[in-house]
């Protein structure tokens, strides 16, 4: 028996209606509709040929693209169907009672108020009493469908699709710049498909039994792929995370995949990541795998990728698995980054142990002292990072995303906070991290330990590392933000470092924009902002 929580989708009858109405138009309209589908799917079409539009053509589109097709201008009105004309579809929960559900990461806590506005990188909540809280994050909240200017909210909730005609049912995310297809039962030669901009990447497992799938919200978990091992997939704003879950110790150290790419794309292993190029341009990449044990401890070094042509192998260290100290269950997680976007909040590390190396935004921004022992860097790379710092950069107009932020509108900042989370727990909560204002310009393309700015002004804000599950550390930077807004000090960003570097406080590693808890700013503003689509960047979704 399947346990189902239902929502609505376009029915097959509606798709037939759409086809019929569009084809009932003068010939050019039907041809245009077919060309519109072809454009969305990245196919070529000969506009001079009378090509019939089929239900299957509409069904092949995502929910977002089907809605876009409804916007085609025709000579006759096309009404949006009511809920009574739609059919139920299992969305939030779908599983057999004895299957393990996906293990979803902890979501950031939302403010205790009503969500009233969403922008490209921001959310605003009405806290009541004339107070509003705006969170500006480095993770996109909205997306734009290819070839269209209107933005809509990202919704990765998985919907079950049954294409018929002997094809297997699958689950697909509802609304994003990329589509993910997770087969209900994965047959030989099938895999997870990720499609965007007319291109499809398939990650095809060459092991196990992928027939026992449980769905929860934006994630799917295949149970008992191998004896004692599950495989789950979680869809995020810009990436798909694959996790191989050891429910207990299993003597398996390699997992093989076929990476199926379009003919003009190639994969290359680079510094532990699998980069995918098209005509020399990086268009997607698979990050190095991270291992999280049953106590929540993260190991950066015990799993890795091997690549030969398009044959991809995930390898986990045998000694680590056999070590009696290893805590199960554990997960090996790797992210497939489908949408590459400029970082709204850029985080870049510098390391005393590599004084002339440009680290860049490499997913491992350290702050604190690394002796190489606790982190494992000495055993793995024969390297100690020593003192480390993380520089933070963000655009000067970031604060313009706060509704009614202009001082002449009568709004006032009551508080401003900068928030980060670290996924390591090396310091047992003892290291204190301070926030400093950078007083000189710096260039992300050339920044190293040796050429970093020498002038840092302490903001007075410091906090201890956390000891439990990942959560945000919040620093009050209200006075500094007011100085930036008033123009009394220039905005050269922030630097996060150990409060007393001479004490060699143990380093931690921060989440960047691809993490479960990406960096963010939080602002509490008094007096009601004028919430309108004209004020938020890239379009917004007001909710009155």
Q: How would you describe the overall organization of this protein?
A:
Mean pLDDT is 81; it is low at 1-56, 69-91 and 531-544. The longest helix has 15 residues, at 27-41. It is built from 7 helices and 35 strands. Strand 21 (290-292) and strand 22 form a beta hairpin. The chain folds into 3 domains: 3-93; 122-138 and 344-526, no CATH class; 157-337. It is 11% helix and 39% strand. Strands 1, 2, 13, 14, 15, 16, 18, 19, 20, 21, 22 and 25 form a 12-stranded antiparallel sheet that branches. The protein has an 8-stranded antiparallel sheet with strand order 8-9-10-11-12-17-24-23.
Mean pLDDT over the residues? 81
DSSP summary, beta strand count: 35
List the total number of helices. Answer: 7
Task: Return Rg in Å.
Answer: 25 Å
Fraction of helical residues: 10-25%
Instruction: Specify the biggest β-sheet.
Output: 12 strands, antiparallel
* Straight-line distance between termini: 40 Å
How many structurally independent domains? 3
The 3D shape can be described as: globular
Task: Jot down its keywords.
globular, single chain, eight-stranded antiparallel beta sheet, 11% helix, twelve-stranded antiparallel beta sheet, 544 residues, 35 strands, 3 domains, mainly beta
Topology, pairings included?
Layout: E1 3-9, H1 12-24, H2 27-41, H3 55-59, H4 63-69, E2 87-95, E3 114-118, E4 122-128, E5 131-137, E6 142-144, E7 151-153, E8 155-161, E9 170-175, E10 179-183, E11 192-196, E12 199-205, E13 213-216, E14 219-226, E15 229-235, E16 239-246, E17 254-260, E18 265-270, E19 273-278, E20 281-286, E21 290-292, E22 298-299, E23 303-308, E24 311-316, H5 318-322, E25 330-337, E26 346-351, E27 366-370, H6 377-381, E28 386-393, E29 412-420, E30 432-438, E31 456-464, E32 473-476, H7 478-486, E33 494-498, E34 508-509, E35 520-526
Antiparallel strand pairs: 1-2, 2-13, 3-4, 4-5, 5-35, 6-7, 8-9, 9-10, 10-11, 11-12, 12-17, 13-14, 14-15, 15-16, 16-25, 17-24, 18-19, 19-20, 20-25, 21-22, 21-25, 23-24, 26-28, 27-28, 27-34, 28-33, 29-32, 29-35, 30-31, 30-33
